[in-house]
Known about the structure:
This protein has helices at 20-33, 49-64, 84-102, 119-126, 139-142, 160-176, 195-211, 224-231, 248-263; strands at 7-11, 38-42, 72-75, 108-112, 130-136, 146-148, 155-158, 181-187, 214-216. By secondary structure, the chain is α/β, with parallel strands linked by helices. The protein has a single domain (7-263), classed as P-loop containing nucleotide triphosphate hydrolases (Rossmann fold, 3-Layer(aba) Sandwich), CATH 3.40.50.300. A seven-stranded parallel beta sheet has the order 3-2-4-1-5-8-9, with helices on both faces. A two-stranded antiparallel sheet has the order 6-7. Helix 7 links the parallel strand 8 (181-187) and strand 9 (214-216). It is globular. The structure holds adenosine-5'-diphosphate (ADP) and magnesium ion. The site of adenosine-5'-diphosphate (ADP) has 17 residues, from helix 1 and helix 8.
Amino acid sequence: MARDGAHVIVVGNEKGGSGKSTTAFHLAVYLLYAGHRVATIDVDSRQQTLTHYLRNRRAHGRETGRRLPNPLHFHLPAAWGDSVKENQQAEFDVFTRAIGEVEDSVDFLVIDTPGFDTNLTRLAHSLADTLLTPVNDSLIDLNVLARIDPETGLPVETSHYARLVQRARSERMAIDGASIDWVLVRNRISMLASRNARQVQSTLEGIATRFGCRMADGIAERVIFRSLFPSGTTVFDPLDEEGEAATVSHVSARQEYRNLVAALNLPLRGIEPMRLSA
Ligand SMILES: Nc1ncnc2c1ncn2[C@@H]1O[C@H](COP(=O)(O)OP(=O)(O)O)[C@@H](O)[C@H]1O
Ligand SMILES: [Mg+2]
């Protein structure tokens, strides 16, 4: 499935709760405000967090009259038939139709993937121009990428997910000679400096060197992310007019996500941006 249209960003990590859907949603909304045409695909057929996030956003927009930009969104069929094979075929059909529909008509396609391995998860990874892997700030979560030698803190064995990415990279190279820019980002970083945090950072650096990926500055743990989900809003949306004040947490989170987008080196062409709240 060779493409030369939309830049595809896949957000993936086999660990649930690492912040994939939150990050996919923030990236999509950021890119919309920057004036780009954006589509999103939710490949997580079980949780469908990105789909729920966007539904909440549309409902919130209707209820409050706020004009919030939305990506063109696709999700997999929720109806489960008796045959696993048929279900997989139905999901595959929706996915490939979605790709065909948007590849030449949007600038960015953001794909959110589940925390488990399916054929579709693999296919999505092999389409990535940019693969973003959020990692929770815990040594336990690093095991999803590599088994770590407890003595040296160095990666000694490639894990299932890292192998999946390696295969996707080879497939991508064979299909159109392109490489996947794989970026790791620490998420939910504790505000308190700790020994654990330093270990996570140095271990991740070891993993990045071993797997040929990059590390971006991380996103801190902030309560604000919990309150954004029900209204389907992001830290990039203007605050509502009812005198809602930007908290320090809001402003800092926005800056961290901006830094993350900058670190991704996306092909952001010179487009007049829509109003981004200060
Ligand atoms: N930086 C953050 N600070 C605090 N909570 C966060 C942060 N990022 C994500 N979360 C929360 O963590 C949970 C899992 O996030 P989610 O994006 O659904 O992860 P995944 O898609 O990897 O399963 C959600 O409750 C979300 O609100
Ligand atoms: Mg998710």
